[in-house]
UniProtKB/TrEMBL annotation:
The keyword Transmembrane helix applies. GO terms for cellular component: plasma membrane. The lineage of its organism: Eukaryota, Metazoa, Chordata, Craniata, Vertebrata. It comes from Lynx canadensis. InterPro entries: GPCR_Rhodpsn, GPCR_Rhodpsn_7TM, Olfact_rcpt. SUPFAM superfamilies: Family A G protein-coupled receptor-like. This is Olfactory receptor. PANTHER family: OLFACTORY RECEPTOR. It holds the Pfam family 7tm_4. CDD domains: 7tmA_OR2T-like.
Length: 318
């Protein structure tokens, strides 16, 4: 039996599991994706920090991307799963505010980080001789700090404004988490000015980093095209295409939700597109960046080898 909001300050999240005929299947799929994302990103972080061969700028940035993805998916999915098991849909005003802030901060940091990671690949392939200088440890930390600063700025700027609007009597959020457009649809005041500000923020946080990604990979593909090695060209094209697929999915879905006028999409469509960049992307990132990467697979084999040796030594001792 489902429990709805019992307090005037609570919101009701309609969620992903509101269709009873497929709710169990969706719950199972989302659960698998969530735990796969946590495990894959956790393994990436562990390998990068324990294997000296992965102590390079690219993997340093990848470890932070994995950390953001773990935090990112954990702000949304666990509550969805627990609410389904408990048969409830409510979220308190403070809980909604916290989720909104964490979501904006983490997604903003990832927007900027992905753009700057594309620059890292551009320097590595197009200017390999200058790579140690252009991507020094100091520069890497500047990229990380800059990404987090952009995310925190977005969260601190937009969350207080969003959550101070007066909300109507119907506090049902037609979404599976407290995303800004869905929350704003409940506001009883004129939100036109705020939506303009949010649109400008989205241009800065989506279009600019995505433009950096496109420009960087365009230069990379141009450089790769002139490679003399056919095998090298195929490998580089395969890597670039997989990276671009994930990045386009992430940025494209977010652009659809935040930059397309509301008259061009429905709440149901927003929910579907939000799934792409809030649930699927955190799982796809580590899989795409690792499964096609011999360095990471090699580090995994070495880690498993060390574990087997440890188990063997322990067995011999006892």
């Amino acid at each position: 039996m489902e429990v709805y909001n019992t307090s005037s300050t609570d919101f009701t999240l309609m969620g992903l599991f509101n269709k009873k005929d497929i709710s169990g299947l969706l719950f199972a799929i989302v659960s698998i994706i969530f735990f796969t994302a946590l495990m894959a990103n956790g393994i990436m972080i562990f390998l990068i920090h324990t294997d000296s061969r992965l102590h390079t700028p690219m993997y340093f940035l990848l470890s932070h991307l994995s950390f953001i993805d773990m935090m990112y998916i954990s702000t949304i999915v666990p509550k969805m799963l627990v609410d389904y098991l408990l048969g409830q849909r409510t979220i308190s005003f403070m809980g909604c505010t916290a989720q909104h802030f964490l979501y904006l901060t983490l997604v903003g940091a990832e927007f900027f980080l992905l753009g700057l990671m594309a620059y890292d690949r551009y320097v590595a392939i197009c200017n390999p001789l200058r790579y140690p200088v252009l991507m020094s440890r100091q520069v890497c930390w500047m990229i990380i700090v800059g990404s987090w600063f952009g995310g925190f700025l977005d969260g601190f700027l937009l969350t207080p404004i969003t959550m101070t609007f007066p909300f109507c009597n119907s506090r049902e959020i037609n979404h599976f988490f407290c995303e800004a457009p869905a929350v704003l649809s409940l506001a009883c005041a004129d939100t036109a000015l705020y939506e303009t500000v949010m649109y400008v923020c989205c241009v800065l946080m989506l279009l600019i980093p995505f433009s950096v990604v496109i420009a960087s990979y365009a230069q990379i593909l141009t450089t790769v095209h002139h490679m003399s090695s056919v095998e090298g060209r195929k490998k580089a094209f395969a890597t670039c295409s997989s990276h671009m697929t994930v990045v386009t999915l992430f940025y494209g879905a977010a652009m659809y939700t935040y930059m397309l006028p509301h008259s061009y999409h429905s709440p149901a469509q927003d929910t579907v597109f939000s799934v792409f960049y809030t649930i699927l992307t955190p799982m796809l990132n580590p899989l795409i960046y690792s499964l096609r990467n011999k360095d990471v697979t090699g580090a995994l084999k070495r880690a498993m080898g060390r574990f087997k040796c440890t188990q063997k030594v322990s067995g011999d001792v006892f």
